[in-house]
Hints:
Elements: E1 10-21, E2 24-32, E3 41-42, E4 45-47, H1 54-66, E5 72-79, E6 90-98, E7 112-119, H2 130-144, H3 161-172, H4 178-187, E8 191-198, E9 206-211
Parallel strand pairs: 1-6
Antiparallel strand pairs: 1-2, 1-4, 2-3, 2-7, 5-6, 8-9
Amino acid sequence: MYQYEFPHPAITTDIVLFTIRDKQLKLLLVRRGSEPFKGTWALPGGFMQIDEDLESSARRELAEETGIEGVYLEQLYTFGAVDRDPRERVVTVAYYALAASDQMVLRAATDAEAVDWFDMDTLPELAFDHRQIVAMAHKRLVAKLDYSTIAFQFMPQEFTLSELQDVYEIILREELDRRNFRKWILALEQIEETGREKRQGAHRPAKLYRVIDPGRVEIIK
């Protein structure tokens, strides 16, 4: 095998997976079962294999460490600080992923001792530079709400307009005018009525909607 004269860095992929549970934005973390940072919470991820591309690596690592597959995945940023990994020179390509909470069943596997959801406001200490990665992913998510349909990735197969508005308000951390939101969201022509209704408490039944193209994020500006 040919030997290169100069050393090469290793490449990893890390995944910031968001969902909304109990009306809070949640982040998926795994507790590391090996050094470095054994016992510390971290993002799902690991080393890219020699025969796979970056996205394939990210999807494989997410499935192996958490049992989650088939979620929306988008490349975020490349982190390459010289001292970010004490083992060797490691560059990581970070992804962020979004999914409705009812689509996922967690299971810890490979080198993860445990896997769990954490509120974005009360994250534990994180391994490596993962807090920096999480902060950038959250910033990207908030910004993308304004010019895309990315929020639809959090929705179940059927939902009310109030439930969709809740998602926007949870991520933005601000209340939105109900009438203006509904007018705006329907004008996008990205959701359609299912013909079914959902009763919420003592209120009149609310129409149920679905995303027309659920696997796609549209740019709307």
